[in-house]
């Protein structure tokens, strides 16, 4: 069978991997609409499901989602890289309901991870059979598989491409060719478009170390540097707006570091009991290091019996990056490596550690399945003795683990569940020791191969719980009769885009900086009448997203979406602006606070000015209104201010208005007396320029690719 597998081409190997992934995830592929794969009940799940609905339903309706007014008083959506609008494999969202698209996306990217790992390993080992087995196990390692929930889809979409890069760097090193700049730059572009920039950064860091250690020639170095430079041009249309959003966003406060997750030595127990890190910390999918109990023995065997220079290098590289997941080492790296902790959670490097251990694992599996008999029977007898001890002392081991892993605030695990896990591990170790003693026979080797594959599959599938999410997405806000909705609902716990609810505490990780600072004041006691009226918030929703407990009517008069003001104050100090707005004597409905003098200054007169204000058109990116006023005035648009907003006279586009920051967070324009038809619209800064750059870069990429392809075909 091994000889048969080794004769297979890469195409048939891909078909085998696709079949394995489909069979092991048939339950996921057949889930009805509304059910999601592998939820861990993370509070952000509601947001991530709805943002994908919002983005792709907007595109279906012909509205490019540069902006949304439905969350946090308005934020950029396209400039948030996790919207992943340009990621090519997100085409499935145009074909399927969002729940099915998310589930299919998981399965598709598990296949990509497996196939990319197979290509890299096969190039290293020249053994398709062993590479296929190892690639299957790669899919079911904890680092990729435990991220399989809708809130972490961009994680998997981004890092599944990483082994392709290792494969292409190896090929450029071996072939001494610059051709691989093209596929490498395309893969990096896919990673950037997939949306999780932290993995893009860590990928670049790991690839740099990999090329230095394993591919030291000018072809690999030039490929590494040139491909990253070229990929920046290919993705400029997404990357530049995302960076611009970053510099206007809350990450400038450095608060995200407070939510970073790091490894701890006690998490190493998850090599054998992946579940029980859940009883020590909340985010167990971030910290579990499980990749199969038998696989662990395979790595140890490779180090003992197959040790060579490459195994030493891979072990050292994996250990180096694993140490960086611990806080003391991460703090040192943050001072040495630029931007190391910029995104938070260095614990994500565990994924790269597991990938770098795959060649060592492959060597161990090859040794297990070979006919060589030079096994250490004493070590196997000791392992069998330990396994028997584990099986008969499961109660004592369970008590020790509960004492070791639980804090007073943590729920004690079900002891019978823990008992079964310990006994299972003992039986597995005993069977492994017995089969290894008989490995000169073919049947024990076949059983070992089956156990190696099935163990991580079975263990990881126990985490893939279905999650029913009633996602009542309603896109009526695109219909003209609903464009002037006046009242916001604030959710105390989660935020729901489609129900037009927002989160007053702002748990969403990327927010506009002004909005975050403003909301920080709300953590203290505040003037409800003024502040909630300013935020257009009349109701506070208490409870979970799909189980509303109560809705408290704050009975607060609120601003409208558009408001015409004839009085203003100028105050450049943000802190003082909030004090003015909160003052119970300040009239938020007739006076606006600006940070600079307006172009047309309202003048207080004894006679009340005559005016009319009417919204003519509204979508997420723009608003068109007619304003008739007998005196200069200020139009306040109660939607977040950023530098990307522009305003101009619709009947005379050359007449532009300055968009000012008003009332701390909102935007306003000043208008002269008379009749005006004005459009205020949002485009990310440099969008058109970067679109031209990216378009030209992709044209160059295609021309060079097909020129090389034609050249190769001629050589045949």
Q: How would you characterize this protein structure?
A:
It is a single chain. This protein is an alpha+beta fold. The strands form six sheets. Strands 12-13-19-15-16 form a five-stranded antiparallel beta sheet, with no helix packed on it. Strands 6-5-7-8 form a four-stranded mixed beta sheet. The chain has a four-stranded antiparallel beta sheet with strand order 9-14-18-17, with no helix packed on it. Strand 10 (567-570), helix 26 and strand 11 (591-594) form a beta-alpha-beta unit. The longest helix is centred in the last third of the chain and has 29 residues, at 687-715.
Strand content: 5-15%
* Helix share, percent: 40-55%
The strand count comes to 19
Shape, principal axes of CA atoms: elongated
Structural class call reads alpha+beta
Give the strand line-up of the largest sheet: 12-13-19-15-16
Number of discrete helical segments? 27
Return residue spans where pLDDT drops below 50 for at least 5 consecutive residues: 407-412, 471-484, 545-549
Using only C-alpha atoms, the radius of gyration works out to 29 Å
**Can you give the mean pLDDT?**
82
Largest sheet: 5 strands, antiparallel
Q: How far do the termini sit from each other? A: 32 Å
């Amino acid at each position: 069978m091994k000889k048969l597998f080794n004769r297979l081409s890469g195409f048939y190997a891909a078909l085998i991997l696709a079949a394995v992934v489909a069979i092991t995830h048939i339950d996921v592929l057949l889930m009805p609409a509304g059910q999601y794969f592998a939820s861990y009940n993370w509070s952000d799940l509601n947001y991530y499901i709805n943002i994908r609905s919002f983005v792709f339903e907007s595109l279906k309706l012909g509205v490019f989602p540069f902006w949304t007014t439905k969350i946090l008083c308005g934020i950029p959506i396209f400039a948030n890289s996790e919207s992943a609008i340009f990621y090519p494999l997100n085409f499935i969202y145009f074909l399927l309901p969002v729940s099915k698209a998310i589930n299919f996306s998981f399965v598709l990217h598990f296949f990509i991870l497996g196939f990319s790992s197979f290509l890299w390993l096969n190039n290293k080992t020249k053994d398709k059979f062993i590479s296929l087995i190892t690639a299957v196990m790669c899919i079911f390692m904890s680092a990729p598989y435990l991220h399989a929930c809708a809130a972490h889809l961009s994680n998997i979409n981004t890092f599944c491409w990483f082994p392709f890069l290792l494969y292409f760097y190896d090929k450029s090193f071996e072939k001494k060719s610059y051709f691989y700049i093209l596929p490498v730059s395309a893969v990096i572009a896919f990673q950037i478009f997939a949306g999780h920039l932290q993995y893009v950064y860590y990928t670049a860091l790991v690839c740099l170390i990999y090329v230095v250690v394993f591919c030291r020639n000018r072809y690999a170095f030039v490929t590494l540097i040139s491909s990253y430079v070229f990929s920046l041009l290919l993705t400029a249309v997404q990357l530049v707006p995302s960076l611009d959003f970053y510099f206007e966003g809350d990450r400038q406060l450095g608060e995200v570091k407070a939510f970073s997750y790091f490894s701890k030595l006690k998490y190493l127990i998850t090599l054998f009991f992946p579940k029980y890190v859940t009883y020590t910390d909340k985010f167990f999918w971030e910290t579990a290091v499980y990749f199969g109990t038998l696989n662990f023995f395979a790595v140890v065997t490779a180090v003992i019996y197959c040790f060579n220079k490459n195994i030493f290098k891979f072990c050292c590289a994996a250990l180096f990056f694993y140490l960086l997941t611990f806080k003391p080492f991460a703090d040192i790296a943050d001072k040495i490596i630029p931007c190391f902790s910029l995104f938070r959670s260095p614990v994500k490097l565990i994924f790269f550690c597991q990938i770098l251990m795959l060649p060592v694992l492959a060597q161990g599996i090859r040794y297990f399945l070979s006919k060589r008999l030079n096994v250490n029977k004493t070590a196997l007898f000791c392992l069998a003795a330990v396994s028997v001890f584990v099986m008969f002392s499961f109660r004592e081991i369970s008590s020790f683990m509960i004492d070791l892993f639980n804090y007073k605030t943590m729920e004690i695990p079900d002891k019978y569940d823990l008992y079964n896990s310990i006994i299972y591990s003992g039986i597995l170790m005993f069977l492994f020791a017995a089969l290894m003693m008989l490995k000169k026979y073919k049947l024990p080797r076949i059983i070992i191969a089956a156990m190696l594959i099935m163990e991580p599959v079975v263990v990881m599938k126990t985490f893939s719980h279905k999650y029913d999410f009633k996602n009542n997405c309603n896109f009526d806000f695109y219909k003209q009769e609903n464009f002037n909705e006046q009242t916001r609902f604030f959710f105390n716990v989660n935020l729901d885009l489609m129900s037009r609810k927002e989160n007053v505490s702002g748990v969403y990780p990327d927010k506009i900086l002004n909005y975050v600072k403003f909301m920080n004041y709300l953590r203290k006691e505040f003037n409800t009448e003024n502040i909630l009226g300013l935020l257009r918030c009349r109701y506070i929703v208490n409870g979970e997203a799909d189980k509303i407990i109560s809705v408290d009517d704050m009975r607060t008069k609120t601003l409208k979406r558009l408001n015409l003001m004839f009085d203003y104050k100028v105050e450049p100090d943000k802190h003082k602006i909030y004090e003015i707005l909160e003052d119970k004597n300040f009239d938020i409905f007739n006076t606006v606070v600006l940070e600079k003098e307006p172009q047309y200054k309202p003048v207080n007169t004894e006679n009340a000015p005559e005016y009319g204000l009417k919204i003519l058109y509204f979508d997420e990116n723009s608003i068109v209104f007619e304003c008739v006023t007998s005196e200069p005035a200020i139009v306040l648009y109660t939607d977040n201010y950023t530098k990307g907003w522009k305003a101009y006279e619709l009947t005379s586009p050359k007449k532009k208005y300055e968009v000012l920051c008003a009332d701390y967070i909102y935007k306003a324009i000043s208008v002269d007396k008379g009749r005006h038809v004005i459009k205020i619209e949002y485009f990310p800064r440099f969008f058109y320029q970067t679109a031209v750059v990216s378009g030209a870069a992709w044209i160059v990429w295609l021309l060079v690719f097909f020129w090389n392809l034609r050249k190769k075909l001629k050589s045949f």
